[in-house]
Amino acid sequence: MTGFYDEIKASSGMYKFYSNGEWMESTSGKGVSILNPASNESVYQVQACTQKEVDSVFEAAKKAQKAWARTPLWKRAEYLHKVDGIMKDNAQPMADALMNEVAKGAKDSLTEVIRSGDLIAYTAEEGVRYLGEGMLLNSDSFPGQDRSKLCMASKVPLGVVLCIPPFNYPVNLAVSKIAPALMAGNTVVIKPPTQGAVAATHMVQAFHKAGVPPGVINLVTGRGSEIGDYLTTHALVNCISFTGGDTGLSICKKAGMVPIQMELGGKDVCIVCEDADLELTAKNIIKGGFSYSGQRCTAVKLVLVLESVADKLVSMVSKQVDGLSVGKPEDNCTITPVISKSSADFIEGLVKDAEAKGAKLMQKYRREGNLIWPVLLDHVTPEMRLAWEEPFGPVVPVVRVKTVEEAIDHCNANNLALQGCVFSRDIDQAIRVSDAMETGTVQINGAPARGPDHFPFQGFRDSGIGSQGIKNSLAMMVKTKTTVLNLKTPSYTLG
């Protein structure tokens, strides 16, 4: 492992960007500092790439794409399997970067890297199967036509795919875009989030060491204010795969006719019916609402519970909240500092608004810098911001409802509709509730979650466009091309 990552850093200690198979320093001479959320001190610096360098990266990707598309499917899969092994053999520095950049617990950071390798390997196998399938149509299957034409339909790559992952899973949600794109014959430009850029840089080194040809995968870093719009509106972009928040809405408006895959925010509701197994429900609210400090698009962000069982459920959840570990990511605490001061300020604003309007805080609100202690809020009402807005922090609000229909109506009234869950011992009732919830995925008797990674994953309304999951992403990364063979003589004549 010694020296494996040496070439990705400049002599100054700043991390390089990756273009056309080479690790490079920006001509800007500038860097972007990455702050440790726990200390608010700079721990890393990455290159502040210029627009001219963005041009050169896209040109390299464009130039490499045709040859990569001609690379046999089995060979593309072979490269990806090699990347999987290399990532796993060199996982710890990547996991350490996740701890320092995004304050993810040590165990969860390593798990993200291993899971990402597994995703790459699965994509390689699924890609060979799915992309190897074609379709043959005979003209006489349409009324009035004879058997004079044969139509061969195949899947061809889109071109250059721009991949933009979020801070909370900068490795896993990067490879969930990169692996399908590459397997489908596209080349890739990745722009990681600032917080998470170093972990993503380590990840790209695995592709480099696997011998993926120059230009097939490229990485640019820099300030969104300087190169963000330039990237997403670039003339050489043929597809955009983005995971994040409100920025995605802006990208959608500017992208024109470029195919888009979007996973945006979520206000994932948990509907608790009268007959729910409350021990199971409480356990999943804790897991779904507070793991990684609630900084997940699929976190439980609102509990809608029937009044008849609300007291008991709130008491059970509150006791478990009191037992959550709070502290540093290297100590594997459940609650670690949120990503930034601005995020902590936003979360605090939501809590204070709810408290001022009558919500009951089951724990005393406590904050030190970016570290916010977990809090359960009972008696939240629709007049409070927390009933509708996504906190992205260790805060779970509880709304008491009179009927299941009231809970469903609240769920469907939100413009965010990524995931949700329903708890009931009556499976027939749970399915009816699930059918009525207008959200991308509904978990029955389990917390919202992304994965396993081959499951379809999508959001409705402002929570996204298109569906992810390995096979769905492969399908999104290609277009259909047809070749029609016109026969000199019909194979038979209608008589």
From TrEMBL:
Active site per database record: 263
CDD domains linked: ALDH_F11_NP-GAPDH
Catalytic activity: D-glyceraldehyde 3-phosphate + NADP(+) + H2O = (2R)-3-phosphoglycerate + NADPH + 2 H(+)
Known EC number: 1.2.1.9
InterPro entries: Ald_DH/histidinol_DH (IPR016161), Ald_DH_C (IPR016163), Ald_DH_CS_CYS (IPR016160), Ald_DH_CS_GLU (IPR029510), Ald_DH_N (IPR016162), Aldehyde_DH_dom (IPR015590), ALDH-related_metabolic_enz (IPR051020)
Pfam hit, one: Aldedh
Keyword Protein biosynthesis belongs to the record: no
Segments crossing the lipid bilayer: none
EC class of the enzyme, as a word: oxidoreductase
The Aldehyde dehydrogenase domain, residue ranges: 23-482
Ranges in a coiled coil: none
The entry's keywords: Oxidoreductase
Keyword flag Oxidoreductase: yes
Record family assignment: Belongs to the aldehyde dehydrogenase family.
Protein name in the entry: NADP-dependent glyceraldehyde-3-phosphate dehydrogenase
Organism: Coccomyxa viridis
